[in-house]
Hints:
Blueprint: H1 5-13, H2 19-37, H3 47-59, E1 65-69, H4 75-83, E2 90-94
Helix pairs in contact: 3-4
Amino acid sequence: MPIRPKDALAHLLLPTYSARLDKANYLALVREWIRANRPGMATVDNRQLLYAFLGDEIIQGAAIDYLEFGVYQGSSLREWIRINSNANSRFFGFDSFRGLPEDWVPGFAKGAYDLSGAPPLRGHPRNPR
């Protein structure tokens, strides 16, 4: 597949992956969609409002497959399970629950997010195990 000019330029400017840039691009796309599809609506102030907006306006109760990587204590996963009660929806959380394998960014050292291997949603009614 040929490299698109804007991708080639981005690679020259920032040759390694940047989670911050990825997050900024994603947020820009969400804001652009909101501006285009919901004129006059302000951007959302927190994750829970964003999840509610996506659940109410986009998903509208349809069955979904939700995958989350880096579950930690499960707050996002729990919120999506609460928002989407469709019996055919499936929710998957991936995590070692043993913390970061190495130092990540300042303030997030090796071992941060360690739950001693204990998944936080054990025994939840929608957990198949």
